[in-house]
Design a protein that fits this description.
Elements: E1 4-10, H1 16-27, E2 30-33, H2 34-43, H3 47-57, H4 64-75, E3 83-87, H5 93-105, E4 112-117, H6 120-127, E5 130-133, E6 139-141, E7 161-162, H7 169-192, E8 196-200, H8 205-218
Parallel strand pairs: 1-3, 1-4, 2-3, 4-8
Antiparallel strand pairs: 5-6, 5-7
Catalytic activity: AMP + ATP = 2 ADP
Protein name: Adenylate kinase
Pathway: Purine metabolism; AMP biosynthesis via salvage pathway; AMP from ADP: step 1/1
């Protein structure tokens, strides 16, 4: 089988984290999450890590070229010889162009982009369903995990519940719209290049993975 160099895409709540773990376990490739490599680059004080830290310390967004540099540093390491999976990068077309140059220069071209597709409205329901017991902090979900007795916490018997601001439908909807706007051009970009494989993320977790595994095994 050819070396797998992947990009994993999907809107928040689409189940990327779960599927990423299964891919790594089965195909023995390195999972490169941008959050992790940022933290590592800053902790190890790499050239790009120091640049990123300077922006973060000022409360500014890290510019694309610094993010690209951190990804390049990571993709230059020997542990990705047998394949990698990028998660959280690229986030826009400029980064996608940069990734093409980086991966080509390092002779580690991306050979597949897995896009876990879930209808944004379904995702808003998934992500805005969480509510919490005010008394003991037990967490519930309007779709997946309701208290056994309506209005009563299973853990402490309390009757007071609240939703975190992050979980409120209007906040989730706004976040989703921003992500859809960012994701759509990338989906088109990779589709034009013939690298995109879209998987239906509204199925059971194992069914989603079965589709992904089939795609990757055929590459």
């Amino acid at each position: 089988m050819a070396t797998l160099n992947l990009v994993l895409m999907g809107l928040p709540g689409a189940g990327k984290g779960t599927q990423a773990q299964k891919i790594v376990d089965d195909f023995n490739i390195v999972h490169i999450s941008t959050g992790d490599i940022f933290r590592s680059a800053m902790k190890n004080k790499t050239t790009m890590g120091l640049k990123a830290q300077a922006f973060i310390d000022k409360g500014e967004l890290v510019p694309d070229e610094v993010t690209d540099g951190i990804v390049k540093e990571r993709l230059s390491k020997d542990d990705v010889n047998d394949g990698y999976m990028l998660d959280g990068y690229p986030r826009n077309l400029e980064q996608a162009d940069a990734l093409e140059s980086i991966s080509s220069e390092l002779k580690r071209d991306v050979n597949a982009v897995i896009n876990i597709h879930v209808d944004p409205e379904v995702l808003v329901k998934r992500l805005s369903g969480r509510f919490i017991c005010k008394t003991c902090g037990a967490t519930y979900h309007k779709i997946y995990h309701l208290p056994k007795v309506e209005g009563t916490c299973d853990v402490c018997g309390g009757h007071d519940f609240y939703q975190r601001d992050d979980d409120k439908p209007e906040t989730v909807k706004n976040r989703m719209n921003v992500n859809v706007k960012m994701n759509t051009p990338l989906v088109d970009f990779y589709e034009e290049k013939g690298l995109l494989y879209t998987v239906n993320g509204e199925q059971y977790i194992d069914k989603v993975y079965k589709e992904i595994k089939q795609i990757l095994s055929n590459l």
